[in-house]
Specification:
- By secondary structure, the chain is α+β, with helices and mostly antiparallel strands.
- Helix content is 47%, strand content 16%.
- The chain contains six helices and four strands; from the N terminus they run αααβαββαβα.
- Strands 1-2-3-4 form a four-stranded mixed β-sheet, sandwiched between helices.
- The protein is globular.
- The N terminus is likely disordered.
Length: 161
């Protein structure tokens, strides 16, 4: 902050403090936009080799549907919650059927609330019969590639059955 600027306690003080450069700096564990682009490019290469397509930044509500007529407000709330959550990539087969969802969740793994959100996303996809992989950046790409290929093999087997 500017040395001549003094702040008196007010409800806006915490907001002003939150806007300082130190407070808004990206945490060390967050993926940079360049890392995300690199992961997406590698996913595209991997998927295209198998004849699949990769859709970036997909709202979960665009993939999963809520079908429960018990309580109208519950269903509406669940639909709103699904519309707000996203996955970073969705791998689709030639008919645009979703095979595998990818979540770049490095930062989310650090907090309890983030881990709870990841677990909830995983349960949602599992109940829908769709795999969701939580990946970090490109540093473990060989391991990630093996996981992705295995999940895609399982998904294509399941879609043929």
């Amino acid at each position: 902050m500017h040395p001549a600027l003094t702040l008196t306690p007010s409800p806006l003080l915490s907001l002003v403090r939150a806007l300082t450069p130190e407070a808004i700096a990206r945490p060390d564990h967050a993926l940079t936009p360049e890392d995300r682009e690199e992961v997406f490019a590698r996913l595209c290469v991997l998927a295209h080799r198998k004849g699949f397509h990769v859709a970036p930044g997909v709202a979960i509500g665009g993939v999963l549907r809520v079908r429960d007529g018990r309580k109208r407000g519950t269903v509406h709330g669940a639909k709103r919650a699904l519309a707000q959550e996203r996955v970073d990539a969705l791998i689709l087969d030639r008919t645009a059927w979703p095979l595998l969802a990818i979540n770049l969740a490095e930062a989310d793994r650090k907090s309890r609330a983030g881990r709870r959100r990841l677990a909830q996303k995983t349960r949602l996809f599992s109940r829908a019969g769709l795999s969701l992989l939580h990946l970090g950046g490109t540093e473990d790409w060989d391991k990630n590639q093996t996981l992705i290929e295995g999940a895609l093999a399982d998904a294509t087997q399941a879609s043929r059955a």
